[in-house]
Every structure is written in C-alpha cells, then in structure tokens.
Amino acid sequence: DRRSHLRRRRCRAVVRVAVLVSGGGTNLQALMDAQDRGELGPARIVYVLSNRKAAYALERARVHGGIETDVLSKVMQPDPEKYDEALLQRLKAQRIDLIVLAGFLGIVGEKVLARSSGRILNIHPALIPSFCGKGFYGLHVHEAVLARGCKVTGATAHLVTAGVDEGPILLQKAVDVLPGDTPETLQRRVMEQAEWHLLPAATKMLAEEMEEA
Ligand code: GAR
Questions:
Q1: Which residues contact 122 (CB under 8 A, 6 or more apart)?
Q2: 3 pLDDT more than 90
Q3: pTM of the entire predicted model
Q4: Using one digit for the tens of pLDDT, what is the confidence trace for 184-207?
Q5: Which atom in ligand 1 lies closest to the alpha carbon of residue 140?
Q6: What DSSP string describes the chain?
Q7: C-alpha distance from residue 68 to each of 25, 47, 53, 62 (Å)
Q8: How many whole angstroms from 103 Cα to the centroid of ligand 1?
Q9: Contacts of 148 (CB under 8 A, 6+ apart)
Q10: Relative to the CA of 55, which ligand 1 atom is closest?
Q11: Does residue 49 or residue 4 have the better pLDDT?
Q12: Active-site residue, 124 included
C-alpha cells in the first residue's frame, strides 16, 4: 500500500553518480535512458563533467535535464596535480558517491582515486586484458583488434585503480568481428551489443552494493 511504499522510499538512499565524459556521450545516453526506464537501481545521475568544452555528451545531459553539467579541461588546468585537486573539489561539492567514466580521456589522479576507491567505474571497448592500457582508447582499440585479425572482441566494465585498465573486472561481453568490418563498424557493434548494456548494469550493481553498505 501507499504507506509501506513511502516507508520503503524513505530508507532507500539515493546513490549520487557523476559521469565523466570526453566525446559523443553514447554511453552517457545509455545510462540516462536506463535511469529513465527505472533500470539503474538507486543510482541517480546528478553531475556530468567533460574535459572538453565541445563534447556532445554535455548537450545530451542538457537535453535530458536534471543534471548539472561542468567542464574541466587541460587548458583550464594544465598541471596534473592541480587538475586532480580541482576535480576532487567538484566531486565533493556535488556530494558524489559513485563516479562513472564513460569515454573519459582526462586525468583521474591520486586524490580522486583515494577519495573514491572502489567507487569508480570504467567502460573499456575490448576484452581486458587484451587491447588495453596506455594508448588503447576509442577507435585505436578497434583498429588494433582488426590489425591482429581477431574474430571476437567485446567490452569490459571494471573498477578504476592507479594502473590503466588494471582494476577488478565487473562485467564482460563478447562481440563478433565480421568480415569487412572497419574500425567504425566494429566500434558501433561493440557499443550496441556490449557497452550500452554493460555500463548501466555495472552502475546498478555497484550502486546497489553501496546502498546496502
Ligand atoms: C566508448 O567506446 C568507450 O568504451 C571508449 O570511448 C568511447 C566513448 O564513446 N573508452 C575508452 O576507450 C577508454 N579507454 P561515447 O562518448 O559515445 O560514450
């Protein structure tokens, strides 16, 4: 009934999520769509920060509404330590519980890592430990997969630690490489079949764990 519904709502804590972006923001879109369908559990996207002013992801957040948008670029803060500190202050001001890196190519430094250890998620467009680490981001990943002649690739949702793409793996999904694929067609298939499902699912999983803790 209504009263027990209200009681349930009162004890259900909201997990405040920051999504960090750099590009087109299709993964951010998948997260917002999942939230609107009620598929993100206690997670609420409250803050989107881009390291690029021109990132279309920012426009997606504005169109969705109810989300604070922000820019913190290398131009604004070229010193990596100061960038880390500035990001930390913003996350604190927004009372962020969970950070989701959705195609973020900026810096997540020591201070942010220390504050949010175990509460930072990343989506990588390959099956870690293949095609990951320094230099493997965006289309470069799919170019390397095709150059090696792989028949299968995929995506990985994992926790972020100090080592690039080295944190614990939460979810993975395999995707076929097809004859005639270009980096672009492969990227699109990996997004559609893997990333856009894994990232909301991992976000929900982590948010539910945090809610219980
Ligand atoms: C995604 O494919 C994501 O997996 C990748 O960048 C793209 C961002 O697209 N991330 C990395 O390569 C991180 N190493 P989006 O802006 O449309 O979500």
A1: 100, 101, 104, 157, 158, 159, 160, 165, 167
A2: no
A3: 0.94
A4: 999 999 999 999 999 999 999 999
A5: 12
A6: -HHHHHHHHHH---EEEEEEE-S--HHHHHHHHHHHTT-STTEEEEEEEESSTT-HHHHHHHHH-S-EEEE--TTT--SHHHHHHHHHHHHHHTT-SEEEESS--S---HHHHHHTTT-EEEEESS-TTSS-STT--THHHHHHHHHHT-SEEEEEEEE--SSTT-SPEEEEEEEE--TT--HHHHHHHHIIIIIHHHHHHHHHHHHHHHHH-
A7: 15, 5, 14, 8
A8: 4
A9: none
A10: 16
A11: 49
A12: yes
End-to-end CA distance of the chain: 27
Q: Report pLDDT for 131.
A: 98
Structure tokens at 147: 């150059």
What is d(CA 92, CA 175) in angstroms, rounded to the nearest whole number? Answer: 37
**Per-residue pLDDT tens digits for 79-118:** 999 999 999 999 999 999 999 999 999 889 999 999 999 9
Distance CA 99, CA 9 (A): 23
Distance CA 34, CA 36 (A): 5
Q: Whose CA is nearest to atom 11 of ligand 1?
A: 137
In angstroms, the CA 184 to CA 121 distance is 24
Q: Which two tokens stand for residue 33?
A: 């769509």
**Nearest CA, atom 17, ligand 1:** 26
- C-beta atoms surrounding 7 within 10 Å: 10
